[in-house]
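Attaching the record inline, Q. Sequence:
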Amino acid sequence: MLILAGLAAVVAALASADADAWAVHSAEVRRAEARLSRLIQEAETGQRGYLLTGDLTYLDPFTTARRELPAAEAELRYLTGDNAEQQARLDQLRPIIDEKVAELARTTERMQAGDQAGALTIVRTNAGRDLMRRIRTAIAEFDRAEIELQATRAERAAFRRSILAAVIVTALCLAAALAWLVIRTDRHRARELRSVNDALRHEILQREQAEAQLHAQRPRQQWDA
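Structure, as predicted:
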């Protein structure tokens, strides 16, 4: 019983560790998602700053974000490779991001070519604003799904930890019960052994007394003869 309880504790501990790992995995997914969202916002911020000032240094966030976005998306895809629903959301998000980056690139290229009016005309179409809204909505939906998944995984980890605690307590109770049973059995056997020994001693004493009486009677019988 103790061996079985120990094996059950090991299985419960492994299951709890696995659930904890998945909860941590969800946190990593959300971190990667936040990075992707931040890069898109930084790209738009750099574009706006450049269009307003004409200062090329404002384009640094856009250039950096444009360079890092593919890696950020690839990381997010890798982390959600086990989740078909999140992969589908990324499939929907990808073309919107590409369209947004292309819109930002068109405006900055117009500005660099000296056509500030043309760049601002593109901005005034509000196409970029609408694309950003769609991106935020898609990312918010992705994040909401991951939060729900993270909560489910955290609950599963807590449940498995409670099972582990219950198994350990059960194992301790079994050990205590087994120890009590062994002690009780030993005491019972000790009492039986004492009873047997007492009976043997009593029987031996009776035999010794009978033999003593027999020896005492033999001389008297010889004298009478």
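The chain has five helices and no strands. The helical segments are 2-53, 60-79, 84-112, 116-124, 127-224.

More tomorrow.
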